[in-house]
User: Fold High-affinity branched-chain amino acid transport system permease protein LivH from Nocardioides dokdonensis FR1436.
Amino acid sequence: MSRLLDVWRHSVLGRHLLTALLGLVVVVVVLELVGDFRALQLAAMAYLAIAAGGLTVLTGINGQISLGHGALMAFGAYTTALLLDDPTGSMPISLVVLASVAVALVVGTAVGVAAARLHGPYLAGATLALAVAVPGIALYFGQTLGGEQGLRVSLPDVPTWALDLEYLLTGTEMSRSQYVAYLGWITLIVTFVLLANLARGRVGRRWRAVRDDEVSAELAGIQLGRARISAFMVSAAAAGAAGSVLAITARLAAPSGFTLVLSLTLLTAVVLGGLGYLSGALIGAGLLTFLPPFVTRIGSDAGLSDIRAAELSPLVYGLVMVLVILLAPAGLVGTARMAWAGRRARSHADDHDAPADVPHDTQHETGTTTSKGSTR
Assistant:
């Protein structure tokens, strides 16, 4: 136990890996307790959180506003659909996801290079054009990409080793919905560990420096263009992974699934959870996944028709968004952490408000007086 505490305190990578392990245990327990419908909902939450995590890096940590991340997800989704359409089925699902990440990474690099000199609304406008234009590619190359109907995604059978492991641990057989949910959440955990380590390392410090003060960052020797492009690349890679999981979950890659609404949904998840916090991206994705059906069910139970109950969901969703902006302008996680930090600071100040009989050495620790009582 003491060794684990040392790892938690002194190793950033170790702390992230321990958190990932704990998260994996929670995922396994939850997925074994829910049915197939909830498992698919959790898979949907996973791909939204993956894409929102990448957008957190780009917008929250590096300060670039993107309205086109849904389009980057489309590249990952269509890559997955094309690869899984292989009748031989020889490519493992893990390699399919990695290939989708690679394609989105190439596209994101090209967009990042083109947009490296753009700022604020100009960058938002450029990525907005991307979100509007990309769905049209599927229509132009209709014979290959399925046109308006899209491509059906053929989900491979659950691997034998996964079935055996499931039966060994629980005595039950893993369903395809559970398999999809496990795939999505394992991808989420791996992605968040990588993003968290980048954000806490030297690369993340460069991203924050560019976000906070470009002039100071440039004087410190940071190449602004390279920092922006690297953030866009990392964010695009996460979007590719999210698009791959989306295609596998929905079993469809169609232009209607990657409109501007998806990009705005991702940005909403980031704002709700808190800019710059991966945990905020996860909470925001959870709200956007489970709040609409919850409100719809309440409306149905209250006697509303199915159509009116469905229309109630956007209203409540908008009200929640307004309340978060008014009451928690830093997002749910950001506001909670600021409140906790303020509480700790006040507690620390009360502890160091030393009475008259406190030794001078203790006062020296506060940094206000020396051990002789003279002012620094």
Observations:
- Residues 224-250 form the longest helix (27 residues).
- Residues 109 and 231 are 10 Å apart (CA to CA).
- The chain has 17 helices and two strands.
